[in-house]
Amino acid sequence: MKTVFFDVDTQMDFLYPAGALYAPGAERIMPSLARLNRYAQERGIVVVSTTDAHSEDDPEFRTWPPHCVAGTTGQQKPQVTLLEKRAVVPSDPGEHSIAGAEQVIIEKQTLDCFSNKNLPVVLSRLGAERYIVYGVVTEICVRLAALGLLKTGARVELVTDAVRCLSEQESRRTLEEFTSTGGVVTTVDEVCARPRP
């Protein structure tokens, strides 16, 4: 089954206590994030990584504190989540090559990664039958990514010990919604125990 890993918003501003929009405890999932991305790399599985890339006066800052401003330290992904061969796909519609990339970084300016109109084209090129989803935060950007991927008709698995939330109650609701619409929950150990495809 053709698999793609989907790494949602694992950026400094969300993962670390000094970050502008820190998800409490998110730094504790760093080893899991690194393990999943390395597992994918070792098996030739492409990792799609969504990232916020905001301007300094981004409209989203009317709702959320300024975070992940393009070019700042907070916008960067930690080194352990990066793979060597990367392709960056900005939000501007256009032709973007992902040939040979181990990691495709999808930039976005809103909560929903599907606001990047290039994402459906990237997913079509990758041709996944299964997505493994993880990152931050569970009840917002991870939720939108997972539910959006379910609409593609592929199998979508959410790695429950490689996500972090802002609200435990909303996180539980998200997992209930996800599984009731056909999603499957899994763990890092279960994903990494699978034999090579």
In a few lines, what is going on in this structure?
This protein is of the alpha/beta class. The chain has helices spanning 12-15, 30-42, 119-126, 138-150, 168-180, 188-192; strands at 3-8, 47-52, 86-89, 103-108, 130-136, 155-164, 184-186.
Strand content: 15-25%
Distance between the termini: 8 Å
Number of helices: 6
**Percentage of residues in helical conformation:** 25-40%
Return the domain count.
1
Return residue spans where pLDDT drops below 50 for at least 5 consecutive residues. none
Biggest pleated-sheet summary: 7 strands, parallel
- By secondary-structure content and strand pairing, the structural class works out as alpha/beta
CA-based gyration radius: 15 Å
CATH superfamily: Isochorismatase-like
Which word captures the global form? globular
Mean pLDDT: 96
CATH class: Alpha Beta
- How many beta-strand elements? 7
- Order the strands across the largest sheet as they lie in space: 3-4-2-1-5-6-7
CATH architecture assignment:
3-Layer(aba) Sandwich
- According to CATH, what is the topology? Rossmann fold
- H/E element sequence: EHHEEEHEHEHEH
